[in-house]
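Entry for the shared binder. Reason: the reviewer on the internal report wants the predicted structure included alongside the sequence.
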Amino acid sequence: MDYLWTPWRYRYIADASKDDRCIFCDALAMGDDSKSLIVHRGRKNFIILNRFPYTTGHVMIVPFAHQGELTDSDADTLAEMMQLAQRVAAALAANYKPEGYNLGMNLGRCAGAGVTGHLHLHVLPRWSGDTSFMSTIGETRLEPEALEITYDKLHRALAR
């Protein structure tokens, strides 16, 4: 078995486990969507850029309700989550032309969740070769676009 180490993620994991504050609830409470990187608000969920993205366009779809378990979410929230995943995939396709996507949830600390108390769905656009030698050997992630530019592109695309 091969192992790929991701030390650039340590800062995120270490910061997330320092206190009981919720980064998603804090983003909502900020009241400034562009500063908190909330690109779209639905009825029951919102879409937020990941501040520590694996790839350009890495977003999370997050219920407004602060619940950590999948079983705690109602059917309408989960249905809208998938509908927003479709919308954001279309917005990413129009702006970035990815070759594929990863969608996933990490439920619980042992499953890799950095934020355990607030359910969220990751949507990552993917391209062949997007994990280069810099990530795997150089312990450095290369992001070709500033978060503010990604925010503007996705915010405009999702407003339609």
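Summary line for the report: The CA atoms of residues 90 and 157 lie 9 Å apart.
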